[in-house]
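Render this sequence as a predicted structure.
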Amino acid sequence: MDGNAPFSDAIRLAPVPEDFRPPRLEAYRGATDSRKHVQGFEATVCYRQPDEAIKCHLLANTLKGATFTWFIKLPRGYISSYEHLKWELITRFIGRTRMVVSDMVLANIKQGEKESLRDYTNRFFAATVKAECRSCGGHAQFPEGTQSGGFV
């Protein structure tokens, strides 16, 4: 299969400058947040100021495994710009994004009737790792979820 087929003719046939040296780029297999991959990619290539076509080819070259399979199955000529490729990639693999827990969710975590304090504590603090409120870490909500409603 032609890995360049999903690109429009303008991208596929664009010349690459002779002195262009591609940066070392992180591979993306689709198992993690696609937005973070694109952000890291853009941070890596921005100082080289590549044109639209080169950015498309560079981003496509980071795709491995399931992401590459997805890419080469796109219709011939489908991708018309870097922004188009970027948003197709992000939306296709957005499900790999880690969900963030709000402090409201933490406030609603309660100790079960037969749940030991240790089990509740482990479950509660495992959820705080994902909490959106990074500064509070959920500690303010912890005592409210215990069976006695706090420590005496």
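Summary. The mean pLDDT is 82. The CA atoms of residues 34 and 90 lie 5 Å apart.
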